[in-house]
Amino acid sequence: MGLELMKRVLVITGATGSGKTTVSSYLAKKYGMPQVITHTTRAPRPGEIDNVDYHFETDASMAKLHLLERVDYDHHQYGSSYEALDQAWGKNPLISIVLDTKGAQTYHEQLGAQAVIIFLTVSHPQALVSRLTERGDQTKPLKQRISSAEYQRDLRLPPSLTKTAHLIVNDDWQQTQGELDRLVASIQAETRSV
Ligand SMILES: Nc1ncnc2c1ncn2[C@@H]1O[C@H](COP(=O)(O)OP(=O)(O)OP(=O)(O)O)[C@@H](O)[C@H]1O
Ligand SMILES: Nc1nc2c(ncn2[C@@H]2O[C@H](COP(=O)(O)O)[C@@H](O)[C@H]2O)c(=O)[nH]1
C-alpha cells in the first residue's frame, strides 16, 4: 500500500482582522490546501467575487442549503455546507476553512480530531482596528462590526476549545508563518499512514 494522508480540515478562527483569510491563503499557496468556500447573506465587499470569496446568498437561497453549521454574525447569516467540504476534500486531504468561534466549536463537536482548530489572536486588540482600516474597510460597517457581540466574543478562545486549539499570536507575520509550517509538518507526519 502506498503512502496515504488522512482527511483533515484546518479550522481557522479568531476575531475579525486577526488574519484568518491571510493564513488560509498562505496555506493554499504554500501547501496547495483548498479553501472551503462558505455561504453568506451579507453583501460582497469591494473586490469580493461570488463563488470565490463566498457563495453570496439571499435569505431564501440560504434556507435551502444543506449546512453542517449556520451562524448569525453582525446581523447576517453565514454557513458551511457538507458539499463544499467534500468538494475541497476531493482535491486534497488537507483543506482549510475560515469560521467564527461558534462555527469552530461546532466543527470540533461534529468532526472531532478531523477538525484541527487554529485560534488567531494579537497581543493588542487595537491592532485589529488598524489592520482593518488599512485593509480598506469602510468606517461605518467597521464601527458596527467592532461593537457587535460576536466581535467581543471572538477575541477570546472559547473554554470548550482550550485543550484542543492551536493558539497563534499573529503579531508578526514571519513568526506566524514559522508556526504554521511547524503545525502543518506535524499534521502531515501524524496523518501519514502506510
Ligand atoms: N501579522 C500581521 N501583521 C500585520 N498585518 C497583518 C498580519 N496578518 C494579517 N494582516 C493584515 O490584516 C488585515 C486583516 O487580515 P485578514 O483579512 O486576513 O483578517 P480576517 O481575520 O480574515 O478578517 P475578517 O474576519 O474581517 O474577514 C489584512 O489587511 C492583512 O493583510
Ligand atoms: N460559523 C461560520 N462562520 C463563518 C462562515 N463564513 C465566514 N465566517 C466567519 O464570519 C465572520 C465574518 O466574516 P466576514 O467575511 O463578513 O468578515 C468571520 O469571523 C468569518 O470567519 C461560516 O460558514 N460559518
Automatic annotation (TrEMBL):
Essential for recycling GMP and indirectly, cGMP. Its EC number is 2.7.4.8. The keyword Iron does not apply. Residues 7-185 form the Guanylate kinase-like domain. Belongs to the guanylate kinase family. This is Guanylate kinase. It catalyses: GMP + ATP = GDP + ADP. One of its GO terms (cellular component) is cytosol. Keywords: Kinase, Transferase. It holds the Pfam family Guanylate_kin. Coiled coil: none annotated. The keyword GTP-binding does not apply. GO terms for molecular function: GMP kinase activity. It comes from the Bacteria.
